[in-house]
Protein 1
Amino acid sequence: MPDEKKSPTLAVREYRDSDRDAVWALWRESGVMADPERAGQDLEFCRASADNTLFVGLQDRRIVATIMAGLDGHRGWFHYVAVDPDNHGTGLGRHMVAHAEKWLAGRGAVKVELMISQTNHAVLRFYENLGYGPEPRVVMTRDIGS
């Protein structure tokens, strides 16, 4: 990308309980956490399953990016993909996606699925630039939890 800022060094590791406050702050600031209660439930589910993980990206020991990756037995899924707004356009998101893709492939995933709002043009462009594209499918949901 011609207007991309220089990518700073990024260390990626799995989430630790001590990361919670920094992750919550990043999720709020980046807009990926609409409902803190739901985010807490998602994180607990992720931490309890060997088929899910949350990666954090660090610069100078500060969490600046996250990506939650999960495997449904065939496909991989991403959730809570967040980059500190001051670091948008630096390649951190691309780095986090590549890291999560490698993790999923190592567990047998054959593809990655994403659900993105049709009106979220910036995120759609981000994934299109990474080689993702739409499939002719309809996503249907029904809330079954309390």
Note: The domain at 11-129 is CATH 3.40.630.30 (Aminopeptidase).
Protein 2
Amino acid sequence: MSAAQRVIVLSVDRLRTQFLGCYGNAWVATPAIDRLACESLVFDEAHAAGAKLADFFQSAWHPAAREWIAGATSTFISDDTEATALAGAAGFAEIIELPSGAGGTQAEDLDATHLASVFAAATEPVLQSLPETNLFWLHVGSLGQVWDAPRALRERYHEDDDAPLPEFVEPPCKLLAANFDPDERWGYALAYAAQVSALDACLDLLLEQLRASADWDSITFLLCGARGFPLGEHRRVGPVDNSLYGELLHVPWLGKLPRRASAMERSAALVAPADLETVLRGDRLPPRDRLEFHGDAQECALRTREWFLRRTVRDGEPRVELYAKPDDRWEVNDVHDRCHDVVEELLVELNR
């Protein structure tokens, strides 16, 4: 990293593309993220490295990236103890660990949320250290720790004929019954939407100060999701069994590059955390036609430009699912029994 290059990375665990306006969502208010997208190169096909947070960081901080980090004046700050431990091993010069939000209660207003406390604690170090710090990495684990957005934010997305407003603050983790109540699933989505809006409002304050007090045009700012959060698709809510589906794997990436290079452009390239260093350096991404994922309980998946294949073992027998991409965004229509040749070809690729 050159002495003049300044990079800010905001990685957010459990952030989904499907709840952001710049990825097509029309009912959740995310004006700050959408404005950032207008200044950024937006990656439509960014994916998590796997179901575990360590997968994300171990992929992002591969050996070449660690050399890059070690050569920089770098600061890492997070409310996730696992993330700060991994940052120490990666070679960050300064590490700031913030309290976790787990066990919190619903906030009276936005300023009292755990998200607000994280951004408040991070903003001053960011603004003060930018002249001397090449790399500032803020990792936010709050979306997986506590859903404490004030009631008013939940009410924003609640209609009179909806089920009663959800009151829980601990992120849900359960497998829905086969005949689950749609109102229950909607309650989870509503509460999550309120958290995303709270995140957006906190980010707005940080970006406002960066634009006002720093040389914004010369800074690289990357917003990326570490993992998504299932909200009832395939009956999973939260990390109940870490199944490798798109709601867990498909994440947002927005890269604001110096002098707004590539602003308002979108990339359809298949990218993963291992590509973060390349993006931050401003180098050309290597061509990739597949992404491979490995989970728990003999589960693995393969994503190509045209297909998503998921393989599991149930009762000792292998089971395969196949979905056409990018049309089947939600992986609803399993076509493995109609595309035997494709399944066989992808299984060969997966077994290499």
Note: DSSP finds ten helices and 14 strands in the chain.
